[in-house]
Amino acid sequence: MRAPCGQVSRPPLGTWQHGGVTSATHLPSFPAGADSADAVLLGLDPEQREVATTLRGPVCVLAGAGTGKTRAITHRIAYGVRSGQLMPASVLAVTFTNRAAGEMRGRLRSLGAGGVQARTFHSAALRQLQYFWPKAIGGEVPRLLERKIQFVAEAGARCRIRLDRGELRDVTGEIEWAKVTQTVPSDYPAAALKAGREAPRDMAEIAQIYGTYEQLKRDRGMIDFEDVLLLTVGILQDRHDIAEQIRTQYQHFVVDEYQDVSPLQQRLLDLWLGERDSLCVVGDASQTIYSFTGATPDHLLNFRTRYPQATLVKLVRDYRSTPQVVHLANGLLAQARGRAAEHRLELVSQREPGPDPVYAEYPDEPAEAEGVALRIRDLIAAGVPAGEIAVLYRINAQSEIYEQALADAGVPYQLRGAERFFERAEVQKAILALRGAARSGGNDPLLDDVVELGSQVRAVLSSTGWTTEPPAGSGAVRDQWESVAALVRLAEDFARGRPGATLADLTVELDERRAAQHAPTVQGVTLASLHAAKGLEWDAVFLAGLTDGMLPITYAKTDEQVEEERRLLYVGVTRARLHLTLSWALSRAPGGRPSRRPSRFLNGLRPGSAAPGSRPGAPAERGARKRGHRGPTLCRVCGRTLTEAGELKLMRCEDCPSDMDEGIYERLREWRADQAKEQGLPAYCVFTDKTLVAIAEAQPSEEGELSMISGVGRRKLDRYGAEVLAICAGQDPGAGDADDA
Predict the structure, then answer these.
(1) Is 65 annotated as a binding residue?
(2) Which SUPFAM superfamilies does the UniProt entry name for this protein (predicted)?
(3) Of 117, 118, 209, 574, which sits with the fewest C-beta atoms within 10 Å of its C-beta?
(4) Is 64 marked within a binding site?
(5) Cα 21 to Cα 44, 144, 318, 626, distances in angstroms
(6) For a pLDDT cut of 70, what percent of the chain falls above it?
(7) Is residue 67 marked as binding?
(8) Would you say residue 101 has pLDDT above 60?
(9) What is the C-alpha separation between 403 and 415, in angstroms, rounded?
(10) Does residue 410 have a known ligand-binding role?
(11) pLDDT, position 654
């Protein structure tokens, strides 16, 4: 019997197995020969069965990764239809992607509930808008604008604001965010500031483009996808007769991925419901990774505040991943903070034990890519299909090195959610410019007095608008910059490998690389960003490039932004069924300074990371390439070779921008003055100014991180380390331990 609010008496999670099923992905959607409502419930675990049989009143299902949430809600609908408690035409199930809606429709058909509507929010609203427009507004329905980016470009031109391709995509994204948060053009700057948006242009300019874009659509009788929701909301608010007609049609609602609803989608759902509460929502706050689009888990987390009588069911039996993978996923969330973390689910694997996750440290990025490719080749040789393997990374610009490594290893691959590296417009434009400069030879004024190949490449690409300094914020502009920066790094590596190489030699190399990467895509290893991997799963997953600065990404500044980065890694971990490898590289290029640190999210999880005073990096498997002699040290901002002692200490050029924490720097200076006075020493004998700047930029949180900073040797680490770390953590360094050192 079910108790109020979903509190049920059930067998221990760790001992119960249902039907011998081990993977949610491969579950039969309907038991063979089933011909009754009760047969729909066969094979469901106790919590899934509770979801399926609770057909009245509000129901909130908190479903962890791999726990069979789609199975639970489709069987719920099918059980209601088969038992006669729900009429198929009275149910509307909504989700967020066409793929998910199509999968839901297929499962419902196989369960004998084919008459149920399963659609995305936009698809459901568009059907209603088209049907009711003549009655509510009159005349023909406005044409739907499939690609708004062209109108945004025209709006920018009318405002005399020039937008490049990347800025167009990002400004379009800002307009979409404004609309789903129901923000009008005049209110955009204030709303964006309040929300902490990283705008790609001046916010007043974006507001101007946004307003002109809206006027263009009105003048031409067109609407975009956000208008579909806005207009449907407007009609349902103004025309109570139409709202009642829809509410008569749809009596019961199911919403999947409820943590991703925007304020506008929630408003539409409220209007569909009216005063009723026949609503089942399913979600997981720990998988909220799309807040930049306006998605918020608040509606999921506030559900029982809004509906105190709601039945709450938690799905925590993980049928996708092995106990080893689930243990790591739980460990990641155990360190999380914030409201979403307070509602995290402790998953319990229902699979047989498998291999432990592999933590692989490499000396440089090429070694990491080569190591990943060789491991993948071994897995394929051992019988794992290439299509059941994925390499996941934080940003699309990271794909190129893995494309090349897999091609070199003879492993087929396919890119998901991004163009092939050499097919990206910004890469093609850059190569075209390099080819033109190579043909000009010594007649190109850009290359006057520029001898070194890397410098020549930077000079040529700077003429196309690329800068050595990355743009602020995230989005398409940053991805575009990263793609061209990858070309610059490739040129520098090529020059180191072939001293005396020319621009012409480089263009030949680029052409050869492009040709070599034309690998088959069918049944290939998937290369994807972590965002694009949401909702997917593979037998083997490689999470690559897990360094601080990449995950969390450098522009994640606030606590909530950092926590979303942690959730992004959690999503990546939970994509793996059996094999999971997490890797990072200590430097970018072979011979570079090993200054990178593994992602802070792995602290306490990877072997050896919790040992006090240990060097950052687990005693993990090493890459195939051994660290050779130390090569030139490159600026971590612009990539220029560093020669001055002060620049080497900072790991950047003197005139490159600093990300120093001014508050930490001033506290360090005050502390240094006190130490110098107490010991009767010049201040620089404690730490030089450059060392203090380097500390304030790195903001180390443990001794191992502090020891990586030039100017902090063993003696000074022992003498001052605890107090410096306390200052970096915002704490009072206390009375001097220096006397005891």
Answers:
(1) yes
(2) HRDC-like, P-loop containing nucleoside triphosphate hydrolases
(3) 117
(4) yes
(5) 10, 45, 11, 44
(6) 83
(7) yes
(8) yes
(9) 9
(10) no
(11) 65
